[in-house]
Amino acid sequence: MYSEKVMDHFSNPRNMGEIENPSGVGTVGNAKCGDIMRMYLDIDENNVIRDCKFKTFGCGAAVATSSMATELVKGKTIEEALKVTNKAVTEALDGLPPVKVHCSLLAAEAIHAALWDYAEKNGIVIEGLEKPKADIHEDEAGEEY
Amino acid sequence: MEHKIYLDNAATTKTAREAVEAMLPFFEECFGNPSSIYSLGAKSKRAVMDAREVIAKSIDATPQEIYFTAGGSESDNWALVATAEAYADKGKHIITSKIEHHAILHTCEYLQKRGFSITYVDVDEDGVIKLDDLKRAIRPDTILISVMAANNEIGTIQPIKEIGEIAKEHKILFHTDAVQAYGHIPLSVKECHIDMLSSSGHKINGPKGIGFLYIRQGVKIRSFIHGGAQERARRAGTENVPGIVGFGAAAGRAFASMEERMEKEIELRDYLIERIAAEIPHCKLNGHRENRLPNNVNFSFEFIEGESLLIMLDMKGICASSGSACTSGSLDPSHVLLAIGLPHEKAHGSLRLTLSEENTKEEMDYVVECVKEIVAKLRSMSPLYEDFCKKNK
Q1: CATH number of B17-256
Q2: What SS3 state is found at B18?
Q3: Domain positions in chain A
Q4: Could you tell me which residues are beta bridge partners of residue A30?
């Protein structure tokens, strides 16, 4: 059911792990739905994403979209990274089964969440970046498991 | 690796050689219609009768009480819908459990939309139906109790004899979905006061697309398919002769070997359960420790998600199943795991391994090593595990 690219990124995920003292970190999704993605960004003084790492709790597509998202934003400027849409992630993986498209949305959202964290930490405004919605910490406060 | 380790026998089983060989003549040589008068048809008729007898005997019933269907789901649909229709004048209340198969639950939803009221009785943390709750749920207008004999996900065996006695005492019909139990553990419709029982061929090394509904003599429910006189005119349509013959052969085989098979499966099952429980941290066995199907193992592993686990097991040549949402195509994990009180995130990380007599201890050792390695790998990737470790530093 998955493309070869998805299987490749699932079995050999790129950039999996943590970054010590990251410039920004964002977590989206929730355990209730079975998907949580966390993105770590290391951003240099020229606003270029020097490094990006992820951790994901979720299905094969969730892992593969996280892995692909890190590849697509690594080395890019913040402005360029913002243009990495869920569609771009899906296309780079040669497509996803329809029920798994939400994983690509989550991956793009995780990058945005990490950028939001970076902006907040540094007291800056990133044009075109909206406050991420599916942050797990907000969900936890409002939801009873 | 070439060799596949098949541990999904609750999903379906390999068709037994005996069943295949019994079926083959009924495609080309003895293809006659059992309803035909000439000898070619009579051969088919005889074969269907023989299979019916074997199956009737296996559950302590008479051949006239066995109605062949296209499988477990059809039998469940028939039992519920036809009982509801036949007894609607007496009452419109049905009692079932929260952990039934969707063939029961979705049929109940269908009936609910048509004016019936359904009580879904709770189960305890082992997945055993709460008998006191069941008794309390009984109303003057209750017409049917339907509780599965054993659960397909967590393997818990239900106290169906006690349920049968309760139903009898209150003059309520009792149906049991025995799709997972039939041929795996002994079942007597008489001893358990069962009025209707559903079963399926492919769960006991028979072919797919064949099952039966046992309807106790005297239970008046309507025909399921209208047409010819087949199945005492209650389920019309030319019989699936090869399917019935294959089912009969599989049932004969299953009941002849039941005792030794149970013993072997229980030994393998317990070995697997004990090794996983001892060697993998943060896991929990789902289902009752003793009162469970001889071939069922179901664990939840914290901080990981089931589909990822299944894909990685598949890469190692292991076929298994999970109650995670991603494997069901919905956002919610298994209703059974939620009903036994697992929080969503733990239900997502479940793994079901259902064995057969063909499995070996060596295979179980290999499976434990693979599960250990994969669970550790997935945990190293999991933000939930990261949070857990930081919290417990």
Answers
A1: 3.40.640.10
A2: helix
A3: 4-123
A4: A35
pLDDT surpasses 80 at A41: yes
Percent of chain B topping pLDDT 70: 98
Query: What residues of B are in contact with residue A35 (Cβ under 8 Å)?
Result: 305
Nearest to A56 among B324, B325, B381 (CB): B381
Torsion of CA B335, B355, B75, B81, to 10 degrees: -10
Per domain, the residue ranges of chain B are 17-256, 258-391
Q: Is B390 on the interface with A (CB under 8 A)?
A: no
Rounded to whole angstroms, the Cα distance separating B115 from B118 reads: 10
Here the ipTM equals 0.90
Concatenate the DSSP letters of all residues of B289-322 into one string: SSSB-TTEEEEEETT--HHHHHHHHHHTTEE-B-
Which residue, among A57, A63, A143, would best test binding to B if mutated, counting the most B CBs under 10 Å from its CB?
A: A57
- Cα gap B215→B228, rounded to integer Å: 19
Contacts with A58 from chain B: Cβ below 8 Å = 305, 308, 326
How many Å separate Cα B66 from the centre of its chain?
18
Please tell me whether residue B300 adopts helix, strand or coil conformation: strand
Q: Which residues of B are catalytic?
A: 326
Nearest residue to B307 (alpha-carbon basis) of B258, B347, B268: B347
Per this entry, what is the length of chain B?
Answer: 393
Our separate counts of H helices and E strands in chain B read 15, 12
Residue B389 and residue B381: Cα distance in Å, rounded? 13
Mean pLDDT by 10 residues, chain B (393 residues): 88 98 97 96 97 98 98 98 96 98 97 98 98 98 98 98 98 98 98 98 98 96 93 95 98 97 98 98 98 98 95 97 73 90 94 97 98 98 96 88
Architecture of the domain made up of B258-391 = Alpha-Beta Complex (3.90)
Per-residue pLDDT at B143: 98
Contact criterion met (CB below 8 Å) for B143 and B83: yes
**Å between B56 CA and nearest CA of chain A:** 42
> Could you tell me which CATH number the domain at A4-123 has?
3.90.1010.10
Say if the Cβ atoms of B382 and A55 lie within 8 Å.
yes
Burial of B258 per CB tally in 10 Å (0-12, 13-18, 19+): middle
- CB contact under 8 Å between B311 and A38, yes or no, is no
* Spatial distance between the Cα atoms of B384 and B281, rounded to a whole number of angstroms: 15
pTM: 0.94
Are B326 and A34 a contacting pair at CB < 8 A?
yes
CA–CA dist B304, B130 (Å, integer): 31
**What is the reported pLDDT for A145?**
30
Residue-wise pLDDT for A56-106, tens only, equals 999 999 999 999 999 999 999 999 999 999 999 999 999 999 889 889 999
The tokens for B96 are 């079932």
Question: Residue A11 and residue B315: Cβ atoms within 8 Å?
Answer: yes
Our measurement of the distance from residue B26's CA atom to the centroid of its chain's CA atoms, rounded to an integer in Å, reads 28
pLDDT tens readout for residues B46-60? 999 999 999 999 999
